[in-house]
């Protein structure tokens, strides 16, 4: 996707707020799936940027979804991993809000390509719907 083709950032649906970890005052949104030490482990990674660690919260402060964007400043390639919207909040445009805001932030930092991976057709639809095109695929085998 060329920079000029990047979709504009969209706000989350009414009743939801998009936040980052720059001034984190609450536990990390990934802690339920990755353990209490997830934020400590992220800070040990040289490419971790709290302003690219996004979440969507409900008015009550519950985590509805999250996405972690990474930038390699040497290659200018960004990565989104992981991205998740909790089941109870799906089909409300929250993943698109996370994706478009993350793309805007990556582009502002010099990214010119984004690498994504997906495991579901819904995720594929999100990326294709945002203007991405498949340039390569890989297959993973499990036993």
Topology:
Blueprint (H helix, E strand, L loop, with lengths): L15 E5 L10 H4 L3 H6 L9 E6 L4 E10 L4 E9 L8 H15 L4 E3 L5 H9 L14
Parallel strand pairs: 4-5
Antiparallel strand pairs: 1-2, 2-3, 3-4
Description:
The chain is an alpha+beta fold and 143 residues long. It has a single domain (3-129), classed as Gcn5-related N-acetyltransferase (GNAT) (Aminopeptidase, 3-Layer(aba) Sandwich). It is 24% helix and 23% strand. It is built from four helices and five strands, in the order βααβββαβα. The protein has helices at 31-34, 38-43, 94-108, 121-129; strands at residues 16-20, 53-58, 63-72, 77-85, 113-115. The longest helix has 15 residues, at 94-108. The radius of gyration is 15 Å and the shape is globular. 25% of the residues are buried. The model has no long low-confidence stretch (mean pLDDT 86).
């Amino acid at each position: 996707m060329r920079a000029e083709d990047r979709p504009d950032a969209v706000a989350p649906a009414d009743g939801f707020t998009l936040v980052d970890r720059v001034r984190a005052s609450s536990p990390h949104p990934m802690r339920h799936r990755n353990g209490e030490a997830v934020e400590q482990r992220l800070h040990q990674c040289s490419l971790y940027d709290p302003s690219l660690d996004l979440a969507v919260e409900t008015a009550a402060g519950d985590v509805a979804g999250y996405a972690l964007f990474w930038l390699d400043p040497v290659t200018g390639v960004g990565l989104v991993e992981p991205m998740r919207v909790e089941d109870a909040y799906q089909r409300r445009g929250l993943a698109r809000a996370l994706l478009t805001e993350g793309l805007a932030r990556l582009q502002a930092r010099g990214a010119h390509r984004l690498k994504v991976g997906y495991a579901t057709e819904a995720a594929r639809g999100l990326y294709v719907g945002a203007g991405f095109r498949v340039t390569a695929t890989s297959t993973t085998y499990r036993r």
